[in-house]
Amino acid sequence: MIRLLTILAIIPIIAAFVVRWWFGMRLLSGKGRHQCRCDLAKWEKTFGPQNIPPSSNGDALIYATLLRKSSLLDWKTRDPRASASREGARRFGMAVPPLALMVALLAVIVGRLPIIYLLPVFLLAIASAVIISYLSIAPELKAILINSRRLRDSHTFPRREDEEAVIEVANALAWKEAAPPVFNLLQK
């Protein structure tokens, strides 16, 4: 029973590591350092004064972070229920694994749970957080897609490759940040 629970928990965790690396970390390490040049006046006109980049030249990661931030803010005003649902999934991923570990430790201390079940309980909590996080990523990616269209239409970046790099890195940030924070300790 313990082996079965552990295997059932490890499968989605490994799949999430692979997905996070393929769609997130790999693109961030490659295209995140791409040097871009943008027109700050057009950026401000398109995304508002609260999301202005610090300079007109910089890494694609800087602009992608601001693009994702403005996408999430726009999404929050356009569809507050879906945005709140996604934020709830994110909070679930942050809270459940450590809380499950604490509860399991207390159960072991008081003798209600054999110590051998401690690891499977923790892994199952991480697996459930991973599943919920990655099943709810589609609306966030759609919000980034909507703002990406606005970015393309505004011609903020003189070069098309800068624009594409920023959009790809914004999507990669969404995939990276979708995983529970436990993943940040293991996969940087």
List the keywords.
188 residues; mainly alpha; two-stranded antiparallel sheet; 8 helices
What does this structure look like?
There is one protein chain. The protein has a two-stranded antiparallel sheet with strand order 1-2. The protein has one domain (2-186). It is built from 8 helices and 2 strands. The model has no long low-confidence stretch (mean pLDDT 91). With 188 residues, it is mostly helical. 78% of the residues lie in helices and 3% in strands.
Task: Outline the fold blueprint.
Elements: H1 2-31, E1 35-37, H2 40-47, E2 57-59, H3 60-78, H4 80-110, H5 118-135, H6 138-154, H7 160-178, H8 182-186
Antiparallel strand pairs: 1-2
Provide a compact summary of the structure.
This protein has 188 residues and is mainly alpha-helical. It has 8 helices and 2 strands, in the order αβαβαααααα. It has one domain (2-186).
